[in-house]
Amino acid sequence: DLEAGKKDLELEMFSVFVFALGMIISAVLLFTMVYYVISFYDLESDHVNPTELCSNLNELVIPEYAIHAAMSALFLLTLHIFPFLWNAPLVAWHYRQYTERRHWYDPTEIFRRLPDHKRECYVKLAFYLISFFYYLYQLMMALMRYAARNVTTRAVKLNHYFIQLNTLPAL
After folding, report:
1. 61: which residues sit within 8 A by CB, 6+ positions away?
2. From the CB of residue 105, how many other CB atoms can be counted at a distance below 10 Å?
3. Stronger pLDDT, 156 or 102, i.e. the higher one
4. Which is more confident, 94 or 157?
5. How far lies 113's CA from each of 81, 116, 117, in Å?
6. Can you give the pTM of this predicted structure?
7. Considering only CA atoms, which of 23, 12, 18, 16 is closest in space to residue 134?
């Protein structure tokens, strides 16, 4: 019973780690989307030229896709099915964009496709914001489960200790 309690504690601590990592990654991706939106507005108001903008944004595309795919794979490997299913459509979208070579920002077409790029950024911004708060909620729940199991495990240990004290032969 003590070993099972210890294993449960380890699993809960791992869930805490997974959701904390998911929350941090979502925050990074959320700020990346904010950077994209600000960059697009700078382009609209002629504060930046299209070549510079596309060069800056293209440096972030592959890391964004890779980090998001890695986070989704982590959820799948740790059997957190709902977070994996939540992330799967966006991972599939990223994969489709990548395989069709539509993931790069082209300076010659940026103005023509700007409304589409902005819409995509807003959708991703909302997605990452919802994800952030969901992972925060799951992190808090995992911490509470960990704390509850930790208290229970300590109570079981104390109970075993007192049972051992009562079964000692009288001196």
Report:
1. 103, 104, 105
2. 21
3. 102
4. 94
5. 35, 5, 6
6. 0.84
7. 23
What separation in angstroms does the CA of 81 have from each of 18, 29, 74, 76, 78? 13, 21, 10, 6, 8
The residue behind tokens 């001196």 is: 171
Following DSSP, what letter does each residue of the chain receive, concatenated? Answer: -HHHHHHHHHHHHHHHHHHHHHHHHHHHHHHHHHHHHHHHHHHHTTSS-HHHHHHHHHHHHHHHHHHHHHHHHHHHHTT-HHHHHHHHHHHHHHHHHHHTT--SPPTTTHHHHHHHHHHHHHHHHHHHHHHHHHHHHHHHHHHHHHHHHHHHHHHHHHHHHHHHHHTSPP-
Each residue's pLDDT tens digit, 117-161 = 999 999 999 999 999 999 999 999 988 888 887 766 666 666 666
The pair of three-digit structure tokens given for residue 33, joined into one six-digit string? 């989307």
